[in-house]
Each structure stands twice: as C-alpha cells, then as structure tokens.
Protein: Ubiquinone/menaquinone biosynthesis C-methylase UbiE
Amino acid sequence: MAKTPSEAPRPVNFDRIARPYRWLEYGTLGPLLQRTRVYFLPQMLDCRQALVLGDGDGRFVAELLRRNERVRVDAVDTSGAMLALLERRARSERVTTHRLQAMDYVPEAGTDLVATHFFLDCLTQAEVDALALRVAGGLVPGGLWVVSDFRIPAGVMRWPARFYVGMLYRVFGFLTGLHVRRLPDHVAALTAAGLTRIGLRRRLFGVLTSELWRADGNGVLQ
Ligand SMILES: C[S@@+](CC[C@H](N)C(=O)[O-])C[C@H]1O[C@@H](n2cnc3c(N)ncnc32)[C@H](O)[C@@H]1O
Structure:
C-alpha cells in the first residue's frame, strides 16, 4: 500500500551540513577519517574508471584525481550542495557528477573502481544488499571496491563504540533526516555479491575500518 505523506520517511538531505561537514569531522576525529579514506589509494593508481558513491564534499575524489592522473570519475550523491563542493574541490573535466539515489545509478561500462566512504552506513541492510549486487555486477573482473566505515568491534570497546555510533546516528538523523539507526553488514553484502576482501586496516580501537575488495577473489594484500 502506498504511504501517505505523513507516514513516508522524510527524504535524507545533507545540503544543510555540506559546508560545515569538514569542520565537524576535524573537530571530532581530526585527520582519522581522511586517513581511513585514502589508506588504499596506492592500490588505485592503475584504475581508469571510478564510481564514487556519496563522496560528500569531494575530498576523496580530489585526492584520487591528484594521485591518479588518468582516472575518470562518476560521482553520485543526492545532495546538490555536496556535489557543488565536490566539483569546486576537484576542478577537473575528468569528473562527472550525478545527482541521484545511488540505488538508481547504473555503472559505466568498464568501471574498475567503486568507492564508498562513510556512505553505506546511510543505507538499510536491504539497500546495501541490493546496491552491492547491482554495482558489483557492473565491475570489470579484477575491479576494486574500497570501503571506509564505522564498525562495532568485539570486546570491551563494543560498548563505547555502540554509544558513539548511536550518538552519530541521532545527530545525523536530526540534521539530515537520515532514518537509518544501525550499521548495515556491508561485509555480508559484498561477500554475497561475489567480492573478496583483499585488504583491511582498522583504526581507533577497531571502530574505523578501511577495506579493499576485489571482484575476482584472487590473492590477498598484506
Ligand atoms: C555521511 S556522508 C559521507 C560523505 C563522505 N563520503 C565522507 O567520507 O565523509 C554521506 C553522503 O552520502 C550522500 N547520500 C546519502 N544517502 C544517499 C543515497 N541514497 N544516494 C546517494 N547519495 C546519498 C549524502 O548526501 C552525503 O553526501
């Protein structure tokens, strides 16, 4: 049954926090999130066609373009303000922006890199499952998918991590209308989509994860 407007969840909108986003991040976690985003950049230097989902203000795209002089980037985001910042920061004809729901975007033929930094946590489990299948299906064999995200580690850090992530969800829910309240299991989604994790780096007592996944499952990076 169709939802009436009062029942429908408010659409997520990051426009309002696009400008202060970077300073909010630096003010809370300093350089940790950017280090998490760029950790696997050395493995992306041969990529030629990247799809970057929900890159926000474009700090990862700008760094990717700076380090890889041949890559072309499709950047997909629902926030016009974030995409405007991304275009300004990237200043490159190699970037095409798409103001779209990530789930509605069909990857370009030849896509050999997908990047989702602190983005999958904006989606429900069902959305991540569907997105992983769709996007992984568009990756060339050997194509890479880099993920940065929060996680709840095992052990004593589980409780402060739950508190911290829960607080982040409440703040972002208030500021952007985000209705997701728990981290989806992207590992299960990417594995089910046929990808293999080939690189892993944890920070902040296991609360931050950088992961590199590959479409054909051969080999393991150390
Ligand atoms: C938490 S921010 C992360 C930004 C950046 N990737 C980072 O590393 O900080 C999430 C970004 O995803 C975008 N976004 C949220 N839901 C989306 C969706 N369903 N489709 C496309 N973009 C979305 C937001 O507009 C925002 O720019």
